[in-house]
């Protein structure tokens, strides 16, 4: 009962008290392990689960719990081994397939991971948990290079049709008035009203909204509250923390606030609030930042974009929304820290040229690594510096290095660096890069702006849908069309030739 009420600590204490009288009770040990996992106390969770496993190695639930713990710890091999053990005991349980799928994704074996997640979905009934698993499939399809944009869009529509009951029209229960002279109520829905990369694009928008004409309402499921959250609150006419409120009540709150335009800022990313939009609590619903693809919802009215990222008559068929194109760019970037640029090129300080990418490692698709390897082969005196936005699990690091090796690049030419906490330190690392290489099909966004603000040119490949055209859109809008390529061959050639042109690199360093 305490666990159901969200009293995790009290529930844990109760189970631990129970163990004093029955130290080898496997269900209690499993519950203790699950509670420690929820509290992110992974060592304590591991001790409880492994004791339960030692008492009975043929308990499928214990194996599943241990597997899930190792997924949380990003210990890929152990997670898969325990999940496979569970499957030998109970082959029709959905959880082991989900754990194996997630473990494969952590190790950047994304297509394999997606197939296991699909197997997991096929073995369970529709629920909030399955909707989240299905959303993981959507998000990870964007990283993989083996799916067409049409396949990805179809899966997004399938998610909406499977997990939501979508109202097609706005039911004006609250008596919302329509008057072109009234102050409009704009609602922003997000799980990332904090020091998230979205802040560099959303805060400059909010601070320029004319509050004589618009009232800002924020509906937040943000868990980590920080200084940026406080800045958002200053912009808001009204602020609602909706993390622990059911969707029916959230719907009522939005209607009572008489929201004219409701804007989604999460899409199907982690912590998504997209299901709030299914009941159409506002007459106009828009998806904007936070997710680089269509929502798939029939009643999401618009998606904000621009003419370079979504050219007319090219990507409309990949959206359930009508495209609202802003000119010139749909993005407005405000750096978190002032750039301090070292005007001397790294290649002049070193005996080699340094390519770089500061993107999430899950964006490093097979096709991306293959192209980067060819660029390195074409540029003998060069290395590539890969900096992750997240901690780098060993399994992921090994996968990346082995893929480069398969493409003829020795690990000595690859430098890896984990995430940094301080933004100034993060930006300063761009001073070690001569040329940034943008990944594909899932492009960088924040990283592209960061590189340019630090005087580092970014070479980008223009794809055929939004998430694979963001960087080329940024570059085109900045008048840097010469850094964009329409084919992989041109991308490789462009980067190779730029690496030979020291004068051009110096020009970019001084002028970008």
Structure description:
The protein has 20 helices and 13 strands. The longest helix has 16 residues. The N and C termini lie far apart (59 Å). With 512 residues, the protein is α/β, with parallel strands linked by helices. Helix 6 runs antiparallel to helix 7. The chain has three domains: 156 residues, Alpha Horseshoe (Serine Threonine Protein Phosphatase 5, Tetratricopeptide repeat); 143 residues, Rossmann fold; 166 residues, 3-Layer(aba) Sandwich (Rossmann fold), CATH 3.40.50. A seven-stranded parallel sheet has the order 3-2-1-4-5-6-7, covered by helices on one side. The chain is globular and about 75 Å long.
Short description:
With about 500 residues, this protein is of the alpha/beta class. The chain has helices spanning about 10-20, 25-40, 40-55, 60-70, 75-90, 95-105, 110-120, 130-145, 150-165, 200-205, 225-235, 245-255, 345-350, 365-380, 395-405, 425-430, 445-455, 470-475, 490-500, 500-510; strands spanning about 185-190, 215-220, 240, 260-265, 285, 300-305, 320-325, 355, 380-385, 415, 435, 460, 485. α1 runs antiparallel to α2, α3 runs antiparallel to α4 (about 60-70) and α8 (about 130-145) packs antiparallel against α9 (about 150-165).
């Amino acid at each position: 009962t305490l666990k159901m009420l969200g009293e995790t600590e009290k529930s844990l204490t109760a189970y631990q008290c129970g163990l004093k009288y029955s130290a080898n009770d496997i269900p209690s040990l499993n519950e203790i392990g699950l509670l420690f996992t929820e509290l992110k106390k992974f060592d304590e969770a591991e001790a409880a689960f492994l004791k339960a496993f030692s008492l009975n190695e043929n308990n499928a639930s214990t194996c599943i719990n241990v597997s899930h713990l190792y997924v949380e710890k990003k210990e890929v091999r152990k997670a898969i081994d325990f999940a496979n053990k569970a499957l030998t005991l109970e082959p029709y349980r959905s959880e082991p397939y989900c754990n194996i799928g997630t473990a494969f994704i952590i190790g950047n074996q994304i297509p394999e991971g997606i197939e296991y997640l699909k197997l997991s979905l096929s073995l369970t009934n529709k629920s909030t948990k399955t909707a989240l698993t299905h959303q993981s499939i959507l998000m990870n399809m964007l990283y993989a290079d083996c799916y067409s944009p049409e396949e990805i869009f179809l899966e997004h529509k399938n998610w909406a049709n499977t997990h939501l009951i979508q109202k097609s029209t706005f039911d004006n229960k609250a008596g919302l008035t329509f008057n072109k002279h009234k102050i409009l109520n704009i609602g922003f829905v997000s799980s990332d009203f904090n020091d998230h990369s979205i802040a560099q694009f959303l805060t400059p928008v909010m601070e320029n909204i004319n509050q004589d004409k618009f009232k800002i309402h924020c509906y937040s499921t943000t868990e980590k509250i920080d200084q940026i959250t406080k800045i958002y609150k200053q912009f808001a006419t009204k602020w609602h923390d909706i993390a622990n409120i059911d969707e029916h009540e959230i719907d009522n709150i939005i209607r009572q606030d008489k929201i004219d335009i409701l804007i989604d800022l999460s899409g199907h990313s982690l912590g998504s609030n997209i299901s709030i939009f299914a009941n159409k609590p506002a007459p106009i619903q828009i998806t904007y930042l936070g997710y680089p693809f269509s929502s798939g919802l029939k009643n999401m009215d618009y998606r904000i974009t621009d003419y370079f990222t979504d050219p007319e008559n090219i990507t409309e068929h990949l959206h359930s929304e009508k495209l609202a194109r802003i000119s010139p760019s749909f993005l407005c970037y405000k750096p978190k820290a002032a750039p301090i640029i070292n005007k001397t090129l790294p290649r002049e300080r070193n005996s080699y040229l340094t390519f770089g990418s500061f993107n999430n490692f899950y964006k490093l698709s097979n096709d991306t690594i293959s192209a980067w390897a060819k660029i390195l082969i074409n540029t003998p005196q060069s290395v590539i510096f890969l900096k992750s936005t997240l901690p780098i699990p060993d399994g992921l690091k090994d996968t990346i290095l082995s893929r480069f090796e398969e493409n003829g690049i020795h690990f000595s030419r690859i430098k890896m660096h984990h995430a940094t906490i301080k933004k100034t330190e993060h930006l300063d690392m761009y001073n070690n890069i001569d040329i940034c290489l943008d990944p594909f099909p899932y492009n960088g966004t924040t990283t592209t702006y960061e590189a340019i603000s630090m005087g580092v040119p970014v070479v980008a490949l223009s794809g055929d849908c939004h998430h694979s055209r963001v960087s080329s859109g940024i570059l085109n809008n900045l008048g840097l069309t010469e850094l964009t390529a329409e084919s992989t061959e041109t991308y490789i050639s462009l980067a190779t030739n730029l690496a030979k042109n020291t004068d051009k690199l110096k020009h970019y360093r001084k002028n970008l």
